[in-house]
Amino acid sequence: MPQQPFEIPSVMRALKLTAYSGVGSLRVVEKPVPVPKRGEVLVRVLASPVNPSDVMFCRGLYGIERSLPTTPGFEGCGVVVAHGGGMLGRWQMGKRVACGGQGGNGLWAEYALASAAASLPLPARISDAQGASAIVNPISALALWEGFRRGGHRALIQTAAASQVGRMVVRLGIKSGTPMIHVVHRPPLVELLRGLGAEHVLDSSTEGFDPALKELAHRLKATYALDAVGGEMTRRVLAAMPEGTLVVYGALAEKACEADPGDLIFHNKRIEGFWLSQWLKGQNPLTTLWKLRSVLSMLDTTLSTKVVARLSLEQVPTDLEAHLRSTSDGKVLIIPGNP
After folding, report:
1. What distance in Å separates the CA atoms of residue 64 and residue 72, rounded to the nearest whole number?
2. CA–CA gap between residue 257 and residue 224 (Å, rounded)
3. What pTM, to 2 d.p., does this model score?
4. pLDDT for position 1
5. What angle do CA 27, 31, 34 make, to 5 degrees?
6. pLDDT digits 0-9 by tens, 5-35
7. Strand order through the sheet with 180-184
8. φ and ψ at 157, to 5 degrees?
9. Distance between CA 185 and CA 250 in Å, rounded?
């Protein structure tokens, strides 16, 4: 390992996923601290969020699968304590960065590898909690919003509107004065979003939801929809739209998306998918850099994340599942150095 001013242990604590059966299969283990290769940095992890994608990964339902056992955690923030060579790695030494996992393991550990080119130095005003969630949700929200704007649509429907991505889209819509219809699944979330300034909020669990959604969608000319739920919700939203595109970016219902063939054949409606990893591969480096800088400028305002719980590595196997029963309340952070 290259020379560095930090004392790095040879062994670290980490969460290990032993089976693709959910977060209950996580165990705390000791394992060697990884050694960065050229273009990589070693990060002492300060915080890492539990995103829906992490939960799906732990259940074997995500788009990638690693050999078990493995350490989950798609993103986080930490301090660069070593590098594998290269000017960028040397420059990042000692800096606090937002980053994604590298080398087949994630950030639910005391130390993790990250790509030097994809690690984003964080200004002092950004807290560890916000920095830990600087990549997955904020960039997804901006990319989904960009798809809406580029399509020249007048209004937008979104499901799971009280999720962290949903709240970011709420703020982006308010900021730009865009008419939006926000769908939630229980009454308290209606008031929560109205408290954020959202005008049109509908509860899908109430009688009359479908005709109300259709009336609003036609009146506002909502020809673009973001669906993080799937299952029957996809069909209900698509049926309400006058025409246009529905983008599926999540699977909270954990059921196959439903759709009426007549909507797709006769009513100029279509369904697309969005996966951030694939979207990023299609961007040139300058576009990605612009997105990251946009995120930094809004990370403590429009693209902020609400945190409701902080868990140590030891608390995760016993406590995490209970916190995930109501993900609309906010994000759970894993703090490897203890909360």
Report:
1. 12
2. 17
3. 0.92
4. 42
5. 125
6. 568 999 999 999 999 999 999 999 999 999 9
7. 200-203, 180-184, 155-158, 222-227, 244-248, 269-273
8. -110, 140
9. 15
Given a contact cutoff of 8 angstroms between Cβ atoms, the answer to whether 169 and 145 are in contact is yes
Distance CA 141, CA 222 (A): 18
Reduce the DSSP state of residue 124 to 3 states and report it. Answer: coil
Q: Decide: helix, strand or coil at residue 29.
A: strand
Record the tokens describing residue 251, joined without a space: 């699977």
Tell me if residue 222 falls in helix, strand or coil: strand
Beta-carbon count within 10 A of 13 CB: 17
Name 120's bridge partners.
Answer: 98
- The DSSP string of 261-302 is HHHHHHS-EEEEE--HHHHHHTS-HHHHHHHHHHHHHHTTTT
Burial of 101 (0-12, 13-18, 19+ CB in 10 A): buried
User: Which stretches of the chain are DSSP H helices?
Assistant: 52-58, 87-92, 128-132, 136-150, 164-176, 187-195, 209-220, 232-240, 261-266, 276-281, 285-298, 316-323
Distance CA 72, CA 50 (A): 9
282-336 pLDDT, tens per residue? 888 777 777 788 889 999 999 999 999 999 999 999 999 999 987 778 899 999 9
Nearest to 143 by CA among 294, 330, 300, 305: 294
CB within 8 Å of 257: residues ≥ 6 apart: 227, 230, 231, 234, 235, 248, 271
CA 202 → CA 15, 181, 223, 231, distances in Å?
Answer: 39, 7, 17, 18
Quick: pLDDT tens for 30-87.
999 999 999 999 999 999 999 999 999 999 999 888 999 999 999 999 999 999 999 9
Report the chain's mean pLDDT, rounded to a whole number: 93
Residue 209: CB atoms within 10 A of its CB come to 15
pLDDT tens column, 84-136: 999 999 999 999 999 998 877 899 999 999 999 889 999 999 999 999 999 99
Which amino acid is located at 161 in the chain?
A
